[in-house]
Amino acid sequence: MNFVFLGPPGAGKGTQAVEVAKKAGIPHVSTGDLFRSHIKNRTDLGLKVQAILDSGNLVPDDVTTEMVRQRLAEKDASKGFILDGFPRTIPQAKALEDIAPVCAVLLFNLTEEEIIKRLSGRRVAPGSGKTYHIHFNPPKRDGFCDHSGEELIIRPDDEPSAVKNRLHVYRAQTEPLVAYYRERGLLKEIDASPKGEAVFGEIVRLLGLD
Ligand code: AP5
């Protein structure tokens, strides 16, 4: 059960990966979350990548691949994993082939208009990483996480100029992976526009987890 969730920023990969990972009993490995945790803990890697994440550019392939290699070597990933946000370039996809074989790549399709609506309303709990949306998935108490009670923030890379750059970077560097995985017979596509529960049901069906 080695799955990759692929798709543009804000398509709902992280939201779904958390639930699908729970159902499948495998870890959710988000490279964005791993980088944000390094930034929060002010590690050497975190200090090195903070400006890159804030601008919406990609961290160099060698740095990202090494981080993923180490994470997937951990015991909990031995029975499978959901990779969310990796690979994001062809060299990363090639490197992943040497780390672990992929069973399926799930592509989240969403229009640019919908992506911008989702990212402009996203709020996150900085400690737990739990994600909300001011309209589509609001917390019970406005501005605060339901679980940890911490104050919700706007991710720096959800500011409009960074979103514009992230979309550009996705089209230029990540979209070629669609053809790459289609040619290898691994690609499964999903319409990411319905409500979360409906998207979840479709993923479970597509990945044979029902
Ligand atoms: P990362 O954290 O991976 O960002 P991303 O891919 O841009 O993805 P997002 O987290 O923005 O979106 P998502 O698809 O998970 O959507 P979400 O579920 O939150 O990467 C951040 C940065 O790290 C990169 O820019 C780069 O700098 C660096 N990085 C990471 N990986 C890298 C790599 N491999 N190589 C190099 N650099 C790398 O949902 C979005 C919003 O919509 C939420 O508010 C949510 O509540 C809402 N929502 C979700 N589903 C629905 C629904 N069905 N209906 C309505 N609203 C919904």
Question: Which molecules are bound besides the chains?
Answer: BIS(adenosine)-5'-pentaphosphate
Spell the H/E element sequence.
EHEHHHEHEHEEHHEH
Q: What about the largest sheet?
A: 5 strands, parallel
Number of H- or I-type helical stretches:
9
Mean pLDDT: 95
Number of strands: 7
Quaternary state, please?
Answer: single chain
Return residue spans where pLDDT drops below 50 for at least 5 consecutive residues: none
Q: Into which percent range does the helicity of residues fall? A: 40-55%
Question: What's the Cα radius of gyration?
Answer: 16 Å
Please provide a brief summary of the model.
The protein is of the alpha/beta class. It is 47% helix and 14% strand. The strands form two sheets. A five-stranded parallel sheet has the order 2-3-1-4-7, sandwiched between helices. The chain has a two-stranded antiparallel ribbon with strand order 5-6.
Describe this structure in words.
Helix content is 47%, strand content 14%. The protein starts with a strand and ends with a helix. It is of the alpha/beta class. It has a 5-stranded parallel beta sheet, sandwiched between helices. It has a two-stranded antiparallel ribbon with strand order 5-6. Residues 9-15, 30-32, 35, 52-53, 56-59, 64, 85-86, 88, 92, 118, 122, 131-133, 136-137, 157, 166, 195-196, 199 line the site of BIS(adenosine)-5'-pentaphosphate.
